Amino acid sequence: MSAGGGAVVLSVEGLRAAYGRAQILFGVDLALRRGEVAALMGRNGAGKTTTLKAVMGLVPPTGGTVVFEGRDVTGWEPFRIARLGLGYVPEERRIFTDLTVFENLEVGRRPLADGQAPWTPERLFSIFPNLAEMRARRASAMSGGEQQMLTIARTLMGNPRAVLLDEPSEGLAPVIVEQMAEAVLRMKGEGIAVLLSEQNLSFASAVADRAYVIEKGAVRYEGTTAELEVRSEVREAYLTV
Ligand SMILES: Nc1ncnc2c1ncn2[C@@H]1O[C@H](COP(=O)(O)OP(=O)(O)OP(=O)(O)O)[C@@H](O)[C@H]1O
């Protein structure tokens, strides 16, 4: 599938996945271009999380292809895909609660790919200023939203070129949602391509250039988030409850 614009970093074609006998994805097509933020939208149970997991190899694809930076990684083990430079931040937080913010970041450090400026805790603190203020704090003493930011920051310590973010705004207080949006935009500013799953159109519009709307395991609509704002019939069909 051609996405137009910049070079395609991640290309997903006809992706199928199932949990046992329950088929969930029926051929998902999407592309993420270099340096863009794209939103994967859809109602609860539409298949957003399953799409991200199937891309990452956490759920084995039963059909279709996942190509990352020109390499067919379909069904590879997740750690191998991550090593190629595709980061993944699940909905549930993955941090060490007994470690401080700074220590959690250090634990995430990975050797970098050729020619990339490596992330350091100091560089990350400029993207996540709220984490800078609590660098010596144990993660167990942080709010859920702060832990979510730390999870993202720790993923960046692995120097990914693209990141999959599963529902980054879910369950966060409005002020933290704003900080999260700023952090996503700063990631984009650093040249990292981001594919995030999202139910909330206002968050998606704030951060994403384009949106894919998924329902019953297939993409039903693709367009800019600005277009989605005015296409009420699409929102009513696939987004509003
Ligand atoms: N481990 C699992 N075993 C069986 N079915 C599952 C499993 N995980 C998810 N499902 C089912 O797959 C479908 C898609 O779920 P998925 O989590 O991908 O949706 P989603 O769009 O991310 O929604 P949500 O916003 O609720 O996370 C749902 O019907 C869900 O019940």
From TrEMBL:
Pfam families: ABC_tran. Residues 10-241 form the ABC transporter domain. It comes from the Bacteria. SMART domains: AAA. Keywords: Amino-acid transport, ATP-binding, Nucleotide-binding, Transport. Signal peptide: none annotated. PROSITE patterns: ABC_TRANSPORTER_1, ABC_TRANSPORTER_2. InterPro entries: AAA+_ATPase (IPR003593), ABC_transporter-like_ATP-bd (IPR003439), ABC_transporter-like_CS (IPR017871), BCAA_Transport_ATP-bd_LivF (IPR052156), P-loop_NTPase (IPR027417). Gene3D superfamilies: P-loop containing nucleotide triphosphate hydrolases. GO terms for molecular function: ATP binding. Belongs to the ABC transporter superfamily. This is ABC transporter ATP-binding protein. It comes from Craurococcus roseus. The lineage of its organism: Bacteria, Pseudomonadati, Pseudomonadota, Alphaproteobacteria, Acetobacterales.
